[in-house]
Amino acid sequence: MWNAEPTLTLRFYTMKYFNLSTLCKSDYATLNKPMKLILEVMLRSCFNMVVTGPTNSGKTNLIKALVSEMPDHERLITIESRYELMLKRDFPSKNIIEYEIDEEDELHSGSQAFKLALRQSPKRICHAEIRDYDANIYVRACTRGHEGSITSVHANVLEDVPDAITDMCMLDSRGMDPERLRKRITEYVTQIGLEMGVVEGKRKLLRIGEYVYRDGVIQVRDIVRYDYVNRAWTFKDKLSQRAAARIVRMHPEGFKQLIHAGCIESC
Fold first, then answer.
1. DSSP 3-state assignment of 27?
2. Is this prediction's pTM over 0.70?
């Protein structure tokens, strides 16, 4: 049924500055200080991250908080279907270039935005939401030097994410080996997974997980997981030796901090 009257939709964006410290405060309780340390070390070690969770679970706020912790001098390219992150507005001192895409306009499509973005020699890419038509480009970017990038994916749980991105990539009919692609995505695109959710009306980071591919099986090591029974976060698995080797190479001080916190697997 058609609406007989003209309608106009207005969307308002909040003028709030988010960083990890803000999300630790009791007003938000999205994460706690030990989790903040882990995320800071992940950022400094340039792991590629993926954020998942239902609509209105706080994915955008978490991404903004992660961006706030990135070094100001590093060039960050953002690609969005509509401006929501507002990073240049909130972080004017950072080296940020923003692209807005429109798939109905060939000159402003996701693939065109990626082509232009990669010419800007970004250190990191922030792709607000990975979609079918640009999944392959984002995967290639993550495996060709743009370490420390971040994206979000609509998936129920972290375990579903590599398969979801693989399915998107296979849609362009390039005849790729799906298992080889799945392994590549797990090891290079979804290195660290962050799962958001809503608990008692508050947006929370429910899981921090490390993706591991072993013998054709995708595993998620739950470094941190929210315990619904005790209403608290628990530290479960330790980071793998592969992740530890990356951290000690890129952020030695952070490696020492995570050793002290008991988050790294002993060698």
1. coil
2. yes
